[in-house]
Amino acid sequence: MKSDNKTKNELIAELESIRKKLKKLETLLKKHKNTKQNITERLSAEQAGKRAEEELKKSEEKYRSIFENVQDVYFETLFNSTILEISPSIEFVTKGQYRRTDLIGRSMYDFYNDPNERHTMLVEMNEKGCITDFEVQFKNRDGSILTCSLSLKAKLDAEGQPEKIIGSMRDISERKRMEKELKKCEEKHRLYSSSGEELK
Fold it and tell me: Which fold has domain 70-171?
C-alpha cells in the first residue's frame, strides 16, 4: 500500500514536472512565434522598402532621361534672373555653343538681345500668373540670334510666396525664318498678280 502511494506520488510529481515543461515549451513556442512574426514583418518592411527604392530609382531614371533628352529647354531662375537649373538640351538649342554647366549661376540678362524683353515678360507673368509662347531673342556665344518661345510661371514656397520661375524654352528660329520666306513669296505673288504679269 505504501509502495502504491509512493508510486502515485511519484506519478503526480512526474506529471507536475511534465506540466511545467509543457508550460515552458508553450512559452518558448510563443516567443518563437513572436520572433518569427517580427522577422517576417521586418522582412516584409525591408522588401517593401526595397521595392519602393527600386520604383523611386526607376522614376528618377525615367525623369532624368526626359530631362536630358527633351528637345525643349527646361529652366529655373530666381526673380533677379539668376539661372538655378537648365536642361542639357540647351547644348542642342545653342548648337553646342553653351553647355548646362556654362549657364548655371549666370544672369539671364547676359543673353537677352533686348534686356527690356525680360521686364515686359515679368510684368505680363505677374498680371496673368503664367505665360505661354512669349517670344524673345537671345544672343548665342558667336553673336547670332536665337528666336525662342518661352512658357513659364512662378513657383510658390510653402507660405505661398513667389520663390522662383520655372519654364520651358523652344527654339523657333527656323519657324520664324520659314514664316519670313513665306511672307516674301506671298508678297511677290501679290505684286505679280496686281501688275497682271505671269508669276515665274
Answer: Beta-Lactamase (3.30.450)
Alpha-carbon radius of gyration of the chain: 38
Asked if residues 161 and 73 have their Cβ atoms less than 8 Å apart, the reply is no
Beta bridge partners of 3: none
Q: Which helix (H) or strand (E) holds 173?
A: helix 173-195
Spatial CB neighbours of 65, under 8 Å, sequence gap ≥ 6: none
List, for residues 151-189, the tens digit of each pLDDT value.
999 998 888 888 999 999 999 988 888 888 888 888 877
Alpha-carbon distance of 92 to 74, in angstroms, equals 13
CB atoms within 10 A of CB 50: 10
For the chain, domain boundaries: 1-67, 70-171
- CA–CA separation, 197 vs 80, rounded Å? 57
Single pTM value for the model: 0.59
CA 72 to CA 75: how far, in whole Å? Answer: 10
Of how many residues is the chain composed?
Answer: 200
